Amino acid sequence: MTNTFQTLECDTDILMIGKDTFTVERFKELARKRINARFSKRYVDKDANCSKAIASWLFEQSLEIIENETRITFGNIKLIFPIEGINCKMLKLGSKTWKPGKLRIKVMLEKASIQTMEFEFCYDEPLQLESPLDDIREREDYQQLLNNQ
Q: Is pLDDT at 117 greater than 60 in this prediction?
């Protein structure tokens, strides 16, 4: 495996995850909805005696390197999950065969809301570019023509 993840930009490509199939566009819609729901989920902050969304809590936190001197606040958070990707197959528009690989999601959070979400795919084997002429080149009469030259 090359481990080179590439951003999926064609929303009409098809993903097969387990036994389920989705267009890239539909899978993005479902994932955004679920991720938003997860980060909007509320928990009870007993110290402040209130409930807060998990994403809001993340952005209220800061990392103190040296006590009371050096503090880093979280302005943007980039999430990649799962890092190694999940097994799936992709059927690209115009392709004849499913290509196995891994899918992962990159989310950029800013001020407790999703700013961008990208889907990345890494092929298990390097892609060999398909040509519309491949079918012609494989035909017997074409092969004979080549051999007669």
A: yes
